[in-house]
Amino acid sequence: xxxxxxxxNADDAHAVINNLTQEGYxxxxxxxxxGFLKTGNTTIIVGVEExxxxxxxxxxxxxxxxxxxxxxxxxxxGMGFFPxxxxxxxxxxxxIFVMDVEQFAKF
Length: 107
Hints:
Blueprint: E1 2-9, H1 10-22, E2 28-34, E3 39-48, H2 53-63, E4 66-71, E5 75-77, E6 80-82, E7 87-92, E8 94-100
Antiparallel strand pairs: 1-3, 1-8, 2-3, 4-7, 5-6
């Protein structure tokens, strides 16, 4: 058995979870925060047999999209803050961990 943990952008979480559920996978959703912008993410946890890992990853990949976002990069010089030109960065997509499960029990 494997445990798939996927950290996805909060904007993509609904589509990922709905599609996993429609395919019959049990999903646990956790609200998380992190990354460069310290914005809201969703961590999705799915326990599956090893042969089901690839289809789960395909669903996550299909419904997790990266996007461009402008961020301000103000800097402090001496007595105050001086705004700089906004910088475009890529956010979104998914960060996925697949781990072995030593034991599984359902009570």
